[in-house]
Amino acid sequence: MSTPIALIDCNSYYCSAERAFDPRLKGVPVVVASNNDGCAIARSDEAKALGIKMGDPVHKIKDKIKAHGIRVLSSNYTLYGDMQRRVLAAVEPFARDIEVYSIDESFLDLGGFEDRDLVAHAQAMRAQVLQWTTIPTCVGIGPTKTLAKLGNAAAKKNPLFDGVADLRDEPIRDWVLERFPVEDVWGVGSATARKVKDLGIHTAAALRDMPVKQARSMGTVVLERLVAELRGVPAAVVETIEPQRKGMAVTRSFGQPVTDFDVLMGAIAQYAMRAGEKLRSHGLVAGRLTVLFHTNRFADRPQYGASRTLSLHPMTADGLELVRVARKGAEHAWRDGYAYTKAGVMLEDLVSAELRPRTLFEDETDTGRRERLMAALDDINGKFGRFTAVPGTQGFKREWQMRAAAKSPAYTTRIADVPVVRA
Question: Where's the UmuC domain (predicted)?
């Protein structure tokens, strides 16, 4: 018998995290906007009931926002990241292993708890998360990740499950799969959905019953594994070791158009330094850097976009070296007379720093000195706040900084923003 797997998912996570520190938001329709306050990326149940769709541009729903008193908040990723850590701390005693799938979802290995009533076990876990964080959750349980994911969706949509759906029970599993659209199954993309629908497969149950040879013949091992998982055959256990990343990117839209190269370079320098920080936190170095920037493709003005890819030799996670190479690429790609609205840095060819290939004329003394410099920089910014110590190229004015007109305080990570209660 396979080890039971659970998926715990925070409901309307960004909105729930905001409500944890602002009780005035409870019962009120809330929307959290993307970078630059552009689109809706999280909606409370009240906002969903008013017809606010995921990805709706905020400027297109202004009339609805005004008519219904919808609170629109700027995204506060520092708060959401810290609340995620608190959720995981509440969940930890209830699972043998945890695989963080996204900021609001985690797979749980329930091995060792099989002798318990797992529905009651999951309800106790939900209660602890709610008590510790005020964030509501739903849980799906199954013999595979795919079935746990389906169970979670069922628990969220159908009040009969009271927040926990256990799909190890075959009659319940069959009932859910027969009513679950195939296009909503985890791992089924739009192209695959069209293919299987052409074969008359419209539900998760029909996909489960698809012959394995037929799934394989459609040219994707993912579909074959998906069919197996829907039948209760695990394709993979909970991953407790994060797979090594192949690439990473730091890209942002600007709060206002940029027409000056030095201002653009300030943004690119910040993104390159942040990319280097991410590399070092994962113990990686990069062998290739791409710098990119472009104008607003939807604006009625001259358009231009460019990217330049350069090799990093030797491979590095040194932020200052990344800035130097990014500047070289940006200088070659720059064109006067355009208003740029987005820029970014992408890093590829990532390997473990310990396995970094050495170059023939590499100066080990200089390399060690730069590594210590980066470590000191990380310590300073970690202790006193990001961007406390920055290269001169980055600057401090940051005219290009993203709009965040309605961003909540850093309730949990900045001492000045900690809520104060007076009796």
Answer: 5-189
Check: CB of residue 140 under 8 Å from CB of residue 161: no
The answer, yes or no, to whether residue 400 has pLDDT greater than 70, is no
pLDDT in tens, 82-111: 899 999 999 999 999 999 888 899 999 999
Both tokens of 161, joined, read 């499950």
Q: Which domain holds residue 215?
A: 181-231
Total number of domains in the chain: 3
Q: What is the dihedral of CA 111, 116, 117, 122, to 10 degrees?
A: -50
What is the per-residue pLDDT for 190? Answer: 85
Name residue 106's beta-bridge partners: 8, 100
In a domain, 22, yes or no: yes
Mean pLDDT of 311-325: 92
Q: Both tokens of residue 7? A: 């998926």
The CATH number that applies at residue 218 is 1.10.150
CB of 402 within 8 A of CB of 270? no
Q: Read off the amino acid at residue 371.
A: E
The answer as to whether 240 is a domain residue is: no
pLDDT of res. 277: 92
Q: Spell 279-293 as b/e; 16+ CB within 10 A means b.
A: bbebebbbbbbbbbb
Using alpha carbons, list the distances in angstroms from residue 384 to 390, 398, 415: 12, 19, 11
Q: What is the pTM of this model?
A: 0.70
DSSP state of 407: B
